[in-house]
Amino acid sequence: MGFNELLGDLDHSASAQAAGIRRGYGGPPARDVSVRSGLTRLRCASLLKPLYAWVCAARIPDTARWRRHAEPAVVVSSNADTLNLWLAIGPRVILDDLRERTGVAWTPPNGDPSRFGSVEVAAHEVAAAYAVLAQAALAGDPDAEAVLGWMGEVERSQAYGAREALGWPGAAIKCGWYGAPDETCLRTHAVAVQPHGGTRVSVVVAMTAMPYTEPHEREVYRERVGQGLPVEAEHEKVAGPLLRGLMEETSAALGH
User: Fold this and answer.
1) At what angle do helices 79-89 and 49-56 cross, to 10 degrees?
2) Strand pairing of 200-211 and 15-23?
3) Which of 104, 170, 197, 204 could form a disulfide with 129 if both were Cys (CB 3.0 to 4.6 A apart)?
4) Residue whose C-alpha is closest to residue 184's, from 12, 7, 8, 9
């Protein structure tokens, strides 16, 4: 199945993006691929937590305190720990530091800058930023190494089958999922990072915003979110096959 088959029958209100990068000194020529249907930019839905954690390390002299919040922000996608970093350092400082390190420019969300999951991004930007993080880790940056290691610990229940779909069993993974009260969609995003030796790395990103308009389903979803209950199963039902399909096609286009 190609990108056309995956995206051709999407509802007109759906959005989906995918992007991939393969690069590294001493390997084959750099290669990248991207595809989009629908909106140009999507709310990131926690997809950027490892990147936030990485740049926050330099702003927090107490390494133990940084690890206490950064590790759960990455491994179990803890919103409370992410907020601790996001608000203590400041959204604009974090995003400015990411721009300086990766060349990718994002802006704090309008209205309420404390909502870290409302930063709007494009899949090719996410892939570019994670490629820099991964290569920094492979080159010996201890903070990047720690973050990439934590991404490798993300459990299967939060990975949406990305490792299996790509055939990358040891890949570093981060997913984001949310359906805000002001939206009529569920957002489900994923990034996978695979080192290949030296500083060679591949990154695959898929992002989806799928219609979610049935009133009872939305009510149950909001209740579960409000009670702190998991909602990954609902995202899997709505977007899982598309998410994995986009990642598989992107990896194939990169030459894997």
Assistant:
1) 40
2) antiparallel
3) 104
4) 12
Task: Phi first, then psi: give them for residue 137, nearest 5 degrees.
Answer: -65, -45
* C-alpha–C-alpha distance, residues 248 and 237, integer Å: 18
Domain boundary assignment for the chain:
14-25+39-254
Q: What is the pLDDT of residues 188-218, one digit of tens each?
A: 999 999 999 899 999 999 999 999 999 999 9
CATH code of domain 14-25+39-254: 3.40.710.10
Instruction: Report residue 130 as tokens.
Output: 């994670």
* pTM check: above 0.90: yes
| Separation between Cα atoms, residue 130 and residue 133, nearest integer Å | 5
Q: What does the pLDDT look like over 27-41, one tens digit per residue? A: 889 999 999 999 999
Instruction: Kindly tell me the number of DSSP H helices and DSSP E strands found in the chain.
Output: 10, 7
List the end-to-end C-alpha distance of the chain, in Å, as a whole number: 15
Q: What is the pLDDT of residues 31-73, one digit of tens each?
A: 999 999 999 999 998 999 999 999 999 999 999 999 999 999 9
Is the separation of the CB atoms in 17 and 206 below 8 Å?
Answer: yes
Residue recorded with tokens 């029958």: 9
